Amino acid sequence: MTNLNLTYLNCCLILTGMLINTHASAASLTKLTKEIKNYKPVTQKRLNEADPKDWLLPKGNYEGWMYSKLTQINKKNVKSLKPVWTYSTNLDSGHEAPAQVNNGVMFVSTPYNHVIALDAKTGQVFWRYTHDNPYDLSVMHNTSRGIALWDDKVYVAGLDGTLNALDAKTGERVCQAQIGDWSTGAYITSAPTPVKGKILVGPSGGEYGVRGFLEAMDAKTCKQAWRTYSVPGPGEAGHETWKKEGKRPDAWKYGGGSMWMPGNYDPEADVLYWGVGNGSPWLGDQRPGDNLYVASSIAMNPDSGKIVGHFQYHHNDSWDWAAMNAPMLVNFKKGNKTVKGLVSPQRNGYLYWLERSNEGKISYVEGQPFVKNNAFKSLDKETGRPTYDYRHVPVTGKRVDYCPSLWGGKNWPYEAYNPETGIIYVPANNNLCNSFIGKFQDDVEPASGQFWAGIDIPDLDVYLDNPKKGVGQLQAWNINTRKKVWQHDFGKTMNWGSVLSTAGGIVFNAGTNDRILRAFDSQTGDVLWEFPLNSTAIAPPVSYEVDGKQYIAITAGYGVDAHWTNSVLAEKDKSGEWIADVPEGGVIWVFALPN
Question: What angle do CA 118, 509, 571 make, to 5 degrees?
Fold first, then answer.
């Protein structure tokens, strides 16, 4: 392993949660500049319909498509796109939340748990909420991935494990629920999801020995409606997949499976779909068994939280290949018929086609690698269960290498689907691998707020499989033919950017170290337009309309995982092609065509 200098060690210390301070304030504070008049309440009907003039949900609709039906900006005129306003958040760290728009009002959540309400047409501020995090709060990921809109409230989760209801007109906090205990590692970065009068959210904690769960809060009272654990307890279906063997016969109690990203929802069938994260600790040999529902997509009843179906992408997860993103609800061809489907490019580097039923059952259809995976020999044609190459399965007491890296062939940034082209667009990272030595951490208690992944971070070696090749890609796959249509290679950079597809025939993607926001032809992959931002944008791009004019919005603000991985890879790069100096600082950018 190469020698580690101070930059790499700092990166690793940040990864364990030791160096992040969240600029915590002493008390909750809302600075009101101008009260929002004639605010339009968000109803279940509006969420189901997903009017393209708005962007009410983090991914645009309940199906998770990251797709806009607006066509004013199209492949013929996108080259004329210009910035019309910007707004500096005056904050550092990773900005990962989309701009969410309701009837001309934009809401953006930020690191350090601020929420900013702005006029979506002019960028003028209505109010700013600053959350009252504890002064001693320290977490692994200082970010927020969005808010939830329901009725006349804005709901935002806190790094301190709280879920907060704000008055949408003034930003004043109305009520609060304590969802997770940050001192154990159960902090929250996820955007909450509103469904039928409940606000759903789950905490992180998969690196701390926290048993994952999803909680539903009553939107009116902030009281708990239900909580469902992703790791089944005694007497629950799936508990038998946690074998009572080895040094930790009760491994299920702290087995991970965090539900740390927002889910998707089928209103017609009334079924939720959610992603479940990695096992804890990372080493599967320390928790024998398949370990349901780790690294799975699960179907749930939104009224009770009952799990009604599941599909596990890989058993006994040993790579930190979390399945945290819910699969997109997409219908596709299966033989000669069209089926209700789920499509998901997973962190393990495989793209999955699954079939869903109205009752919640999830069945395997097909899976294909979209990046190199040297740990899987094959997938069973009937069940999708992988056969492993155990030379690349991490174990305790031995250095093991594998590809893709623990950050995956695709991390949390959202893929997009265009129903007109039948293509999904995947922000991929290929050619990136890592190795580490597994460790049995008997000197640290699980769920104590201490890093408990089963490795010493300085032993983590991240590297390019082929030093001459790049990493970041944007891939386009036809969901019916199961074939890759085109691919854009970004070179010596990772792609940490979510994708937006539009009915105007355009695909937007940022997330690369060159700070550029690009517009691609959705069918050919040709670059039609590009614009350099102040910083790398790792937040999802969105589209909305005000007074008959279409806008594209994205928040730039480099940090967290994108920063950590870039620091390591830039340091190792010998070609001089890897951009190491990426400025930080959050700025909301809004673009439109000239009048």
Answer: 105
pLDDT at 215 over 60: yes
Kindly calculate the radius of gyration of the chain based on its CA atoms and give it in whole angstroms. Answer: 22
Beta bridge partners of 356: 362
pLDDT given for residue 28 in this prediction: 53
| Buried-exposed string 151-172: b where 16+ CB fall within 10 A, e elsewhere | eebbbbbbbbbbbbbbbbbbbe
Look-up: residue for tokens 């309400």?
A: 117
Mean pLDDT of 426-440: 98
How many other C-beta atoms lie within 10 A of the C-beta of residue 514?
17
**Quick one: CA dihedral 437, 438, 443, 447, positive or negative?**
positive
Asked whether the beta carbons of 585 and 87 are under 8 A apart, the reply is no
Cα–Cα distance for residue pair 509/211, rounded to 1 Å: 34
pLDDT of residue 14 exceeding 60: no
pLDDT value at 362 more than 50: yes
pTM of the model: 0.96
Q: Is the pLDDT of residue 10 over 60?
A: no
**How many Å apart are CA 398 and CA 360, to the nearest integer?**
40
Q: Can you spell out the DSSP letters for 279-309?
A: BSSS-GGGS-S--TTTTEEEEE-TTT--EEE
The predicted structure's pLDDT at residue 468: 95
Q: CB within 8 A of 556, min separation 6: which ones?
A: 95, 510, 515, 533, 534, 535, 536, 537, 539, 585, 586, 587, 589
Is residue 51 part of the annotated active site? The answer reads: no
Count of C-beta atoms within a 10 Å radius of residue 181: 16
Which is the catalytic residue, given 290, 320, 461, 561? Answer: 320
CA atoms within 13 A of residue 394's CA, in its CB half-sphere: 31
